[in-house]
Write a structure and sequence with these properties.
Radius of gyration: 22 Å
Structural class: alpha+beta
Distance between the termini: 35 Å
Strand content: 5-15%
CATH topology of the largest domain: Beta Polymerase, domain 2
Largest sheet: 5 strands, mixed
Shape: elongated
Strand order of the largest sheet: 1-2-5-4-3
Length: about 250
């Protein structure tokens, strides 16, 4: 089996028709689903004893190894499953599946203490460090990323004079517009729980001053959206930035 990206993982889980209420995705596959890694070799899941027995009866499974008296099985060298670690992690929901959080993956990989996991450990530590960055720093970066995307989008739509481009950009880059977009995304549950936390943290940051033509509420919401874009940018998550920005421009 070649390395699998996020789409491959979701397709395989759908293909095997696994009951998503009976397992949690752990390890490197969790990082791929979180967009912290591009690919992984297989899909590691921890599952209940009941569901473990069901898979053994339903598929042609191969015993891979035994860890702490827990047998680890493979389905077609793709799905790697064991009762080990089941119930040990709270996880988070991604694309409808329960998945280890980055901190939980870090705890697991540190416990395993394998040389091959060091790259993943470094990826997670960088991610967690970025998560704890000052909200205004993230908003500063997000502001530039957001505006550049809008400028590229407007230029791609036709031959406008610079004055026209500026007028059209206001519909997207003003604090009032950004506040409205954020409200819509929250109302439609477009953002993940983690993304909402980043937004809330930035939104609740103490504001010393704000533009006179903008309400303090709209300004804080706009800062929250920019901080989220900045966080995604600093983690090189261009895919999610594109998803959010396409939502905003209506594409």
């Amino acid at each position: 089996m070649t390395d699998m990206n996020k789409e491959d993982i979701l397709n395989k889980l759908k293909e095997y028709n696994l009951n998503r209420n009976k397992f949690i995705i752990i390890g490197s596959a969790a990082l791929v689903l979180k967009d912290l890694k591009q690919t992984c070799h297989n899909i590691d899941i921890a599952l209940s004893k009941e569901y473990n027995d069901y898979l053994l009866d339903s598929f042609n499974c191969t015993l891979e190894q035994t860890i702490d008296k827990h047998k680890v099985y493979f389905i077609d060298n793709i799905i790697n499953f064991s009762t080990h670690y089941y119930g040990d992690y709270k996880g988070e929901i991604i694309d409808g599946y329960l998945v280890q959080t980055p901190q939980e993956v870090l705890d697991l990989k540190r416990k395993l203490n394998r040389d091959k996991d060091q790259n993943d450990v470094n990826i997670i530590l960088k991610y967690l460090n970025n998560l704890n960055k000052n909200s205004l720093e993230l908003a500063y970066l997000g502001d530039a990323t957001y505006e550049l995307y809008i400028r590229k989008y407007l230029v791609s739509k036709g031959n406008y004079k610079v004055k026209q481009l500026g007028e059209k950009a206001i519909k997207y880059v003003s604090a009032k517009a950004q506040s409205t977009f954020l409200d819509q995304m929250i109302e439609e549950h477009f953002l993940t729980e983690e993304e909402l936390e980043i937004v809330k943290r930035a939104r609740n940051h103490k504001v010393l001053s704000h533009p006179k033509n903008t309400s303090i509420i709209a300004y804080k919401k706009a800062t929250g959206l920019e901080a989220l874009i900045g966080f995604l940018e600093i983690n090189n998550n261009q895919k999610r930035i594109n998803e959010i920005m396409k939502y905003i421009v209506g594409d």
